[in-house]
Amino acid sequence: MTSFLSLVRRHQLIGFFSLALGLTWLAFVPFYLSHGDSIPWFTFGPMVSGFIVSGLAGGWGTIKAVLASMVKWRVRPVWYLVAFGLPFGAQLASILINPLFGAAVPAWGNIPALSEMLPIIALYAVFSGPLGEEPGWRGFATPRLLSSHSAFAGSLILGVIWAIWHLPLGLVGDLSLYGTINVVLAAIVFTWLYQNTGSVLVAILMHVTHQNSVRFLGKVFVGGDYIQQQWIGVAIWAAIAVAIVAYYGTESFVRRRTGQFVEVHAS
Q1: Worst-scoring range by mean pLDDT, 44-48, 133-137, 174-178, 236-240?
Q2: Is 178 within the bounds of a domain?
Q3: How many distinct structural domains can be found in the chain?
Q4: Which of 69, 80, 122, 263 could form a disulfide with 200 if both were Cys (CB 3.0 to 4.6 A apart)?
């Protein structure tokens, strides 16, 4: 047992990524094989894995650090504006640009009423990714990756694994090339947000906004126009990621280190 715990402590990221993929995929694939497309997607795999590896590697104190980041709301108001406004603005911009490339006029009437969307958004926030993923990707993996990699390199590593984590969704036709690329680009933006706030809560809010901006605003187009609009969205997210790297550099995505982040030592 002692040797196992020692191994987990030395290779926390390997343990976390393996467990996150394993828990999610093992909960998904058997249901797919037996039920076809009527299956759940276990979005809590990253969060559960983060807590398990935290507990094995550092005990309750390490778990508390992740929990604290999940309820950290005292950040500069501008970061709430970023969390809500950036994904929404990127999606809206892609919609407005799309007709310039031959798409039909946006059918704004296809967007459900706000009173209809809010309950669905609340359910999606809990069961469709934001709550189940962000404590793992940002609360656990990001600080450990950045203890031995630059913010840019760490973001790309996490982004690729985050994209791989979604691969079984291809079995039910819920995976696209533009969505996969967007996940990798979004990892850069999420690292920037986390590095400047230390808050998983704000990352959850950005995840909710990004996910549901695509889900609901994207209804204004159908068919090829929708696909084109999503590719325009990818280009916008790429521009945002390039702007972050150009302004902040590749090392930390912050102008000045502060004492607000949890220091970790893991591989």
Answers
A1: 174-178
A2: yes
A3: 1
A4: 69
